[in-house]
Amino acid sequence: MVRSQASARRLTVGERGWNPDLARTYDRVARAYAEQYFTELERKPFDRQMLDRFAAGVRGRGRVMDLGCGPGHIGRYLAERGLDVFGVDLSPGMVALARELNPGLRIEHGDMRALALPDASLAGVVAFYSLIHLERASAPRALAEIARVLAPGGAVLLAFHEGEGEAHADDWFGQGVSVDATLFSPEEMRRLMGQAGLAVAEILTRPPYDFEYPTQRVYASGTKPLAALQGRM
Ligand SMILES: C[S@@+](CC[C@H](N)C(=O)[O-])C[C@H]1O[C@@H](n2cnc3c(N)ncnc32)[C@H](O)[C@@H]1O
């Protein structure tokens, strides 16, 4: 996949279809993925800054979900900054590993396309490099779910790889599994967030750090408008 420097390459999605068993794929690579990324924030000042700003905006306002949490380091970073965070991930193997690595965090199994959470129940959602695994046509559904579970005024922060089309990797992490990822342009994500009813606050990009896969990185932040509350009164 595009986050793995060793094995990423661009291809069109083949006849086997889009991420035929993504949960199993992440079950297989979970430990290798964690070895590469669990401490990555130590080397990513820009990402820390984005997360610090997100934390400042939602602290004390309610629960925050780290969606597609993987090994849980993004949620853990936010919890260490005083947020009431829980993680959600599609892969049972990742969920087990995230629980092991972060005994203080609640980690649940779930799918961002159909979240088992009540409407308007969260103060914030952070999703770093997880929307990328959705086939493009499924992105609106996941963003609609994020908008649904956010309370009016709630905040969202997304991170993803900038680009057009898709990326694919075979034998990812040497584990005999392949993976697909969708690249989004900032303009496309702005449109998708708007269509989901989210007000885009800011879309920032940065070049890759020299140890990262060489895609431009995008950070899209927004809120669920307070008007959503008025519509329900
Ligand atoms: C590239 S990893 C990102 C993990 C972590 N957020 C990070 O920044 O390193 C993508 C994660 O999203 C999860 N994921 C992919 N599709 C998902 C879905 N539909 N619902 C929930 N989690 C999903 C995967 O299982 C995986 O752990």
Strand order of the largest sheet: 3-2-1-4-5-9-8
CATH architectural name: 3-Layer(aba) Sandwich
How much helix, percentage-wise, in residues? 25-40%
DSSP E strands, number: 9
Portion in beta strands: 15-25%
What count of domains describes the coordinates? 1
Extract low-pLDDT stretches: 1-13
Overall SS class: alpha/beta
Mean pLDDT figure: 93
CATH superfamily: Vaccinia Virus protein VP39
Largest sheet: 7 strands, mixed
Question: Can you walk through the features of this model?
Answer:
By secondary structure, the chain is α/β, with parallel strands linked by helices. The protein has one domain: Rossmann fold (3-Layer(aba) Sandwich), CATH 3.40.50.150. The strands form two sheets. Strands 3-2-1-4-5-9-8 form a seven-stranded mixed sheet, with helices on both faces. Strands 6-7 form a two-stranded antiparallel sheet. Helix 1 runs parallel beside helix 4. The longest helix is centred in the first third of the chain and has 16 residues. It starts with 21 loop residues before the first helix and ends with a helix. The N terminus is likely disordered. S-adenosylmethionine binds next to helix 1 and strand 2.
